[in-house]
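B., you asked whether I could sanity-check this one before it goes into the benchmark set. Here's the sequence:
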Amino acid sequence: MRLTIEVWRQDNPEVEGHFETHLVEGAQEEMSLLELIDYLNDQLVSEGREPIAYDSDCREGICGTCGITVNDDAHGPVKNTPSCRQHLRSFKDGAVLRLEPFRSGAFPVIRDLVVDRSGMDRVLQAGGYISVDAGTAADADSMQIGHGRAEKALDFAACIGCGACISACPNGAANLFAGSLLNHLSTLPQGSTERSKRARAVIAELDESFGPCSVYGECAKVCPAGIPLSAIAAVNRERARALIRTGKDD
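And here's what the prediction gave me:
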């Protein structure tokens, strides 16, 4: 395949970035977007030029670190699929691919396609835990949970924290991300003890670092884990519950 790559280059957060154009020949349609960047980087290094910086880890659609924007789509043209699982067969020979970092005020660019996602980390630090006795594990059936309830919790726990929902949202809201966290932990009895405390902490960080949700729905369209749009309802529900229970232990 012959492709024209327009890629965002930015040395550090303090300088202005720009798009740099490269012609790539010999790319194979089974290549993923990350393999395409690797292929281009080999070309740049052989020419004595700086390779393109980008994040990646598992390359199996699990970790969420590889997210980039492709032709204005978070992750790429295939819906609900992370960047590392997007392949060149989705593009025509001779296509132009515009690669840039996730765009959001909460995601300052560190270098090239690498962004600072620490705002999401702070949300997790605020409430992505439960306080339990770390001693001997209890028997598996000591706290019975219905199958439907367990499956619901697992569905919301599937969020990989990639940030595509925030990048796709016109407001830069993180309600799908925070909602999946709050839904997951409030569904299970282990998370009920600190439910209100968790909600207050998570929502305070959400309001501080991200924009308001206007229910555009763009977040659910790009989520690689398929978190449903209904997850965002947990933010206002848990906010209201926490206000009512102010002063309570949980």
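One thing to flag: The chain has two domains: 2-111, 118-244. Otherwise nothing jumped out at me.
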